[in-house]
Amino acid sequence: MRKLLLALIAILIGTFCAQQAEAQRTQTRSGAADLGLGEYTGIRHAIGVVDFDNQAGWRGRWQLGRNLSIMLESALSDTERFVLVDRQQLGNVMREQDLAASGRAAPARGVAQTGQIRPARFIASGSITEVEESASGRDGGIGIGGVRVGGGRQQAQITAIVRITDSSTGEIVAQERVVGRAGRTALRIGVRHQGMSGELGGFEKTPLGEAAQDVINQAAVFIAQQMEEFPVEGNVIRVAANGQVLINRGSEFGVEAGQEMVLRTEGEQIVDPMTGAVLGVEEGREIGRLRVVRVEERFAYCEVLEGETNPDVGAVVYLK
User: What is the distance between the alpha carbons of residues 300 and 29, in angstroms, rounded to a whole number?
Assistant: First the structure.
């Protein structure tokens, strides 16, 4: 009788574990989460993402600040509203450029060159202020003959302050406190970038990973909605022989033929004479309007609708 009972328990345990594994596979293979932002066809901003500060002092197997930054980079990419500028591997890129410029590397075309790193006007970052992990209640499980299997559920919660910083001035232009809880948001497997760590896949399957995903989904929505209010800036890079004006924004930024934009002179930096801090940039003088006539991936050709027909290189264009 005892052997029969043990065999029955073994069968039930196997069935229970199989069901849990299948549920986990279904949950973690659900694809990119629907952030509720809808389809976007507007102009994209260039943005970089840096590691979150772990102000909560949490220590464990996972590099929490690093993993949150990777997940945020992925979520922002999934919104299709941004041009992601890699800041996770910036140190490696700069070292490669320095090597190429030192004369110690074999000469070659198309290799890393100094002065070619793409700037990002805005930087997304955050600070982890609270991390809570606990086991609560008896959930699921099987009880037979006084034997219980699968008794508890781990809970996790992460609180973070998410920020958008203007890299030209260091000013925080928007910030929000978000709280993520395990089980509230479906996990997602989205686009991964070069900064992906090998541990991320395992991290996502934990209660802490679920709470992190909830934080990141909220952060991505907040950043996307805030950035809708900011115009995208570009610059004049050349005036062609046929009079068309070339700007340094193309299809990767969502620029399309027929779009119109305002042309302004470069504004001067506003500097606090007492502290030397850069307070912002003065709006330049409006000198004309342009219309996009042809688009390449990283630049576009424009015709002058009115005003200055030969703008200086560096003159600013504002796209909305």
Answer: 39
Second-level CATH architecture of 232-319: Beta Barrel (2.40)
- The percent of residues above 70 in pLDDT, for the chain, comes to 67
- Residue 253 DSSP code: G
Alpha carbon distance 161, 157 (integer Å): 14
**pLDDT the model gives residue 142:** 46
Question: Is 317 buried (19+), middle (13-18) or exposed (0-12) by CB count in 10 A?
Answer: buried
- Please give the Cα distance from 122 to 227 (Å, whole number): 10
Q: Where do the structural domains in the chain lie, given as residue ranges?
A: 39-103+118-227, 232-319
Structure tokens at 233: 């800036």
Between the alpha carbon of residue 272 and those of residues 17, 78, 201, the distances in Å are: 64, 39, 47
CATH 3.40.50 fits 39-103+118-227, yes or no: yes
User: What is the rounded CA–CA span in Å between residue 315 and residue 180?
Assistant: 43
Structure tokens given for 249: 């924004």
pLDDT digits (tens, 9 = 90+) for 179-200: 999 987 655 544 444 444 445 6
Contact 69, 52 (CB under 8 A): yes
Q: What helix, strand, coil percent values describe the chain, rounded to 5?
A: 25, 35, 40
C-alpha span between 188 and 175 (Å, rounded): 24
* Whether this model's pTM surpasses 0.85: no
Classify the phi-psi angles of 214: left when phi > 0, otherwise alpha if psi is within -120 to 50, otherwise beta. Answer: alpha
In sequence order, what DSSP letters do the residues of 182-240 get, joined into one string?
A: TTSS--------TT--TTHHHHHTSHHHHHHHHHHHHHHHHHHHHHTTSPEEEEEEEE-
**CA torsion sign, 300 to 306 to 310 to 316?**
negative
- State the residue for tokens 């970089």: 48
Which tokens in the block code for residue 130? Answer: 């609270």
Q: Is the pLDDT of residue 144 over 60?
A: no
